[in-house]
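Researcher: Here's the sequence for the chain we discussed earlier.
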Amino acid sequence: MQTELAIGEFVARLCPGVEHYPDWGPFRALGFNDGEKLVAGVVFSQLNGFDALVSIAATTPRWATPGRIRRVMQFGFDEIKCVRLTAVTSKKNARARKLLRGLGFIEEGRKRKGFDGQQDCIIYGATRLDMERWLLAEKHKIAA
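Model: Thanks. This is the structure I predict for it:
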């Protein structure tokens, strides 16, 4: 089992634009293993009592099972008590943008050249309502 610091380092290594993870300030993290090997990490940073910046990195797309996605959403909304989650990525990162949309994040805006001084930054956000399909899936499972 990895520590949150180790998961943060994993995400920082794999996630473009997140290489300066110590600047995140206090953060929380979830890791997902395949056997003993860490294959995905989700970092919740810039915690302010109602929002968190979500950074996701993985070595395989197979980490993203419905149960694991549900766990990420429960962690963000139920354990950390966020009202919303924010994610940012470069305009050119089609894979990340597809993942975020598939999870239920809504594109909220664009910062011109805001990703790295050269690429535009796309800002995504999600509220509990946007993520109900993940959060309610567990309630239906328990009720069944």
